[in-house]
Design a protein that fits this description.
Layout: E1 9-15, E2 20-26, E3 31-35, E4 41-48, E5 50-55, E6 58-63, E7 67-70, E8 76-79, E9 86-93
Antiparallel strand pairs: 1-2, 2-9, 3-8, 4-7, 4-9, 5-6, 5-8
């Protein structure tokens, strides 16, 4: 898990024909802005820390052990509103073809 001061990080684990998997890391105060993955569903498993997840304007606090499923057409965002680092194990399927999806650090 890699955390840097100026932005969240994605640590790519698997990028296969049908699936994309990475660890998403956010320091306190960092956020992933509202977006969607259109044709790709997302599974997010919180492995460290906590924060606030918004899915189609519904907001909820998340913490270690939580698993969230978002359909591709749902708009979501994530913010680390805690004092601890946040890391999530993320799976996108089917694998999106968007360029720049990960910013490996």
């Amino acid at each position: 898990m890699v955390y840097i001061d100026n932005t969240f990080t994605n640590r790519l684990l698997f990028s296969e024909e049908k699936i994309l998997n990475f660890v998403l890391n956010l320091k306190p105060g960092q956020e992933v802005p509202l977006h969607q993955h259109e044709d790709s569903d997302l599974i997010l498993h919180v492995v460290a820390g906590g924060g606030e997840l918004a899915v189609d304007e519904k907001r909820e606090n998340i913490t270690v052990g939580d698993v969230i499923y978002c359909k591709g057409n749902e708009v979501f965002s994530l913010i680390n509103n805690t004092k601890e680092n946040l890391s999530c194990f993320v799976v996108l399927a089917p694998r999106p073809t968007l360029k720049g999806l990960t910013n490996e650090k």
